[in-house]
Amino acid sequence: MRVLIIGAGDVGRRLARTLTKSGNEVVVIDRDKRACDIVASETDALVLNREATDLNVYEEIEANKFDIVLALTNRDEVNLFVCMVAKNYGVPRIISLVEDEKIAEFMSGLGVEKPLCKPKLVANTLSSIIEGGRRMVEIFEAEKGDFKIVVVEIGEHIVGKALGELSIPLRTKIVSVFNGEEFIEPDPDYTLKYGDMIIALVHVDDVRKLEEVLR
Question: Which of 62, 150, 181, 211 fits a 20 to 30 Å CA distance from 120?
């Protein structure tokens, strides 16, 4: 599968790493040279230090030959621009992160498959856990259904343990820890506290195993 990722931030970098390991052909574009250098050092992706709003770059990489485009920058206007370009090139699948709910609605009208409104996504997910009494919520199923992004409220038996001490399944990547107020980088030395929630990318076959470890 040919994948174009616009945005080499934390989400784009982690996704590029996962997709290249799975054998996909990945191209990453970002205007930040340092971010590009990090992705290039961690993955086999083709990384271009270019402006996502430069139409010439889409001609150069033959955007019409990609199977999916992911707009993952931290600027809604850029992500919207990328979605419109991808649509114009006939890319069959377009996924975008977005902050503004109105822009997300507009993207849906353009035919964007998954305009993921980050504030709404996070709020709805955490609400499901806190108010609904659910201890684990699946919030996104990745391409081909091989992976899911899940949120798990940790059990009391692992409070006080470091993340690195947990027997996390091999095909699982801890994305972040949410303590009810802020998102925390998943450092192996981070000590888990009561009420922490773990956000993780996990293979579908390991979802139950992860829940057993964390719950």
Answer: 211
